[in-house]
Amino acid sequence: MSRRLIVGVATLALTMTTLTAPALADPVTGLPSSSFPLGEPGISKTAAKSLAPGVDYFTLKHGQSKDGYTVSVVVGGKDAFSEATAQSQAQAVQEAGFSPTIVKFTRPAVADFPAADYFMVRLGSWPLEKKAEAADVVKQLKDAGIGAKVDFTGDDGFQTTGPWSVRIITIDPRTFRGSLRSSIGTGVAKREKVSAMAASVKAIAGVNGGFFDIHTLTEFRGDPTGISVVGGKLLSEAVSGRVGLVLKGRTARVTELSSLVVARSNDGAAVAVTGLNRVPKPDELVMYTEELGRATPVDDGVEAVLDASGKVTEVRDPGAPVARGTRVLHGVGTAADWLWEHAGETATIKVTTQVTDLRTHKAIPLTPETNIIGGAIGLVRGGQISITAFRDGMANVNMILRRHPRTLAGVTKSGKLIIAVVDGRAPGTTVGASFFEAAQIMRWLGARDAVNLDGGGSSAMVIGKKVVNHPSDGVERGVGDALLIVGQP
Fold this sequence. Notes:
The chain is mainly beta. It folds into three domains: 67-155, 2-Layer Sandwich (Alpha-Beta Plaits); 164-256 and 354-486, no CATH class; 267-347, no CATH class. The chain has helices at residues 83-95, 131-143, 194-200, 334-342, 397-400, 435-444; strands at residues 7-9, 45-52, 55-62, 69-73, 101-107, 116-126, 148-152, 164-171, 179-183, 205-208, 228-230, 233-236, 243-248, 251-265, 270-272, 275-276, 285-289, 302-306, 312-316, 327-331, 349-357, 362-363, 370-373, 377-381, 384-385, 406-412, 417-422, 447-452, 461-463, 466-467, 482-486. Strand 2 (45-52) and strand 3 form a beta hairpin.
């Protein structure tokens, strides 16, 4: 009978703040005068710069490195599993001649997902300068048929002293005279660097937007995974109930959103358009706009081309560009049958679009000043931490608990927009943030409502033509959309 290994318990320190109101701002730096909310108590090292009237840029550094490396066993690409799996893996590690430890930890509950216990199998501890020794152990384990990885302990979500490197931009609508915009670059389907999108409109600054679909056809991997509105045009549909950042002129707010697009033929037949500028699912009707930026996907469906008035000018096979001034209804399966029956070349199709604010239950006017960035995870609502990881498709240990580079956006009670980029994945330099830590940072900065935008290698902050943070890929990555701060014409 195999010997049951002793479980070592790792204490997860979240150090949740108990602030009920934003910390007072320092009159010199403009940042809160209280201790940084993460790591050891203390005032952070900061610097400030004005980018334009009402637009301020801050750099912040806090903490010091005390973390090193360990080796974590990996099963099926994951390093956290059930106790039974941990026991069996630990036994295999022991039989390979090593001394493993089973680490039990709790992934804490978030607003829409309960807490759960997990187990890791780890062995060894090395300082930063001896990573090669940990890598050698990984190689030996793999030679024994055991999956493993070198794991930086500052990334795992357990207690750390940092350090953190954060870049912050605040936009005060009372004194800012430009506008806040979203951008999908040269096409919805394409990925483009924030710096290129910012340069195209001579933006003061910009950051990456929401998540984009990396699991679709290669040619469509710039498609935002949630709502996207650019200049009043709905270019990507909402995931109903998912949080988004609504920009109008100089103002910003965070809210949950839904969208509804309906195509109605002149014979009275109506059908929901369930996708915009993305690859269709079976039996789905998708609409492509001229902002798609490439040919429509090739499949066995059918397309109806609409002119600006909604008149069907052509019924065609898929796989052609979307001409300027037109829209294309693309149907597969039963949706293709609907187009054949109701969208012939003599038909007129009226397409109506509505975006609804689910907090107010009112439609959002889609004017040229309206821009919306979705694909986000809720962090703070009404001044309290409220992480909506399950609703937003991110309810797992990796996203909730582990530290990653983060791009964050929040709005204060007075209407000020706060944008923050937390660099990460740089052992000894900056550790990134978990969802909980990201929420604490935004509350500390004064956000009443805040969201987590895309992060990881996508996190980028651009000022003028320069990327001012340190993207974890080593170079700036192309992304699906961006949030831009544009000066007065």
